[in-house]
UniProtKB/TrEMBL annotation:
Record's keyword terms, sorted: Coiled coil, Endoplasmic reticulum, Fatty acid biosynthesis, Fatty acid metabolism, Lipid biosynthesis, Lipid metabolism, Lyase, Membrane, Transmembrane, Transmembrane helix
GO MF annotation: an example: very-long-chain (3R)-3-hydroxyacyl-CoA dehydratase activity
Record function comment: Catalyzes the third of the four reactions of the long-chain fatty acids elongation cycle. This endoplasmic reticulum-bound enzymatic process, allows the addition of two carbons to the chain of long- and very long-chain fatty acids/VLCFAs per cycle. This enzyme catalyzes the dehydration of the 3-hydroxyacyl-CoA intermediate into trans-2,3-enoyl-CoA, within each cycle of fatty acid elongation. Thereby, it participates to the production of VLCFAs of different chain lengths that are involved in multiple biological processes as precursors of membrane lipids and lipid mediators.
Main location group: endoplasmic reticulum
Statement: the UniProt record of this protein carries the keyword Kinase: no
Domain CS per the UniProt entry, residue ranges: 4-94
Enzyme class label: lyase
EC number: 4.2.1.134
Protein name per Swiss-Prot or TrEMBL: Very-long-chain (3R)-3-hydroxyacyl-CoA dehydratase
Length: 366
């Protein structure tokens, strides 16, 4: 092993305690020297520099109580709980204004002074102490650093909102000019942009898998996958279906739902509460979701004779692979065993969310 290195150390605080997380695994030969205003640590372990000897010294901003402080070695870190000698919020951890580069701020563990240590609710320092949050971020990064996940989700939702607004605007302008005659050219006009934003929607299946959102993977897959099947396999693959008025109505229903959903998500990410938008988000689906499923079912039913005729996506026997696939039968099975269960699953979940979001808070009488 080479010379002694310095590990990354993450710190957070409550009103009465400092917590330190030393980023080391497989720790051996740990030596801790803890005094009122200093902390010295040496150890051998696996850190950012690989398996090596690590050490660091801290001169604390204010005194702590060594007798009431403790440390422990857990799976992926060494954790210190340092009891403050006098309760209060420290503006920084070290006595010197200059913070060492290996010392980081652990915002995930930060608690506010009105939160008990045994409280389950996770609080947000940004909401509790916005001035302190900005100051600490500026100390850490030199500027106010936004969460990458939050920025990404805002941009994604904004792009989707703009896409569906464009589709609706084009359809509305053409309908106001040409009336019902414009319906047969709906797919030729907005089909391309609609396919693009629909492909982007498949990211919404990945978001809960990566922990970006708390939505259900199954519900996201049913919604996005069902739309993708109808759009690409039923409409895009059969030119005769593209001129039917039901395509206009389907695009109208889908787009109307989305121009409410995506702005709602943006306001939630930005911690902005608009009661009417919340009500609209969890109410507009009641008439529109059944209409959307009906349009999807009509498109599938009308496509069955077309695919019987063209044999598109059908693999007939005999062939070299000895494999047969009859696409019209798949459509029939989809209608019987997937469309209705998917409709029930999606609408049941939306109803549960509606009851949760729009339920009036109970007023407890003293």
């Amino acid at each position: 092993m080479s010379n002694t290195l310095t590990p990354f150390v993450y710190w957070a605080q409550t009103e009465g305690q400092i917590s330190l997380k030393v980023d080391l695994t497989d720790v051996k030969d740990l030596n801790v020297n803890l005094k009122e205003t200093t902390l010295q640590v040496t150890a051998c372990g696996q850190g950012a520099g690989g398996l090596n000897n690590y050490s660091f010294d801290l001169n604390l901003h204010l005194p702590i109580d060594p007798n009431e402080s403790n440390f422990k070695v857990i799976d992926r870190e060494v954790h210190f709980a340092l009891k403050k000698k006098n309760n209060g919020w420290w503006p920084r951890l070290t006595s010197q204004p200059q913070k060492p580069s290996w010392l980081k701020i652990d915002f995930d563990k930060w608690k506010s002074e009105d939160m008990d240590d045994n409280e389950d609710e996770k609080r947000d320092i940004l909401n509790d102490y916005p001035d302190m949050y900005d100051k600490l971020h500026k100390e850490e990064f030199g500027y106010r650093k936004e969460d990458f996940m939050k920025v990404y989700l805002v941009i994604y939702n904004l792009c989707q909102f703009v896409g569906f607004i464009y589709v609706l605007a084009v359809m509305a302008i053409r309908y106001s000019r040409d009336g019902p005659d414009s319906m047969k050219e709906t797919y030729d006009t907005v089909g391309g942009p609609f396919k693009f934003i629909q492909l982007l929607q498949f990211l919404e299946v990945m978001h809960p898998l990566f922990g970006y959102t708390k939505s259900s993977v199954l519900v996201s897959l049913l919604q996005t996958g069902g739309r993708g099947f109808v759009l690409f396999c039923m409409i895009d693959a059969e030119s005769r279906m593209q001129t039917k008025p039901v395509v206009f109505y389907l695009f109208l229903v889908w787009s109307t739902v989305e121009i409410v959903r995506y702005p709602y998500y943006i306001t939630q990410l930005l911690n902005i509460e608009i009661h009417f938008l919340t009500w609209l988000r969890y109410t507009i689906w009641i008439p529109l979701y059944p209409l959307g499923f009906i349009c999807e079912g009509i498109i599938m039913l009308r496509n069955i004779p077309y695919f019987e005729e063209t044999k598109k996506f059908t693999v007939s026997l005999p062939n070299s692979y000895n494999f047969g696939f009859h696409f019209p039968s798949v459509i029939r099975l989809y209608l019987l065993f997937l469309l209705l269960p998917a409709m029930y699953t999606v609408m049941s979940r939306m109803n549960q969310q509606r009851l949760k979001k729009l339920r009036k808070p109970e007023i407890k009488k003293k």
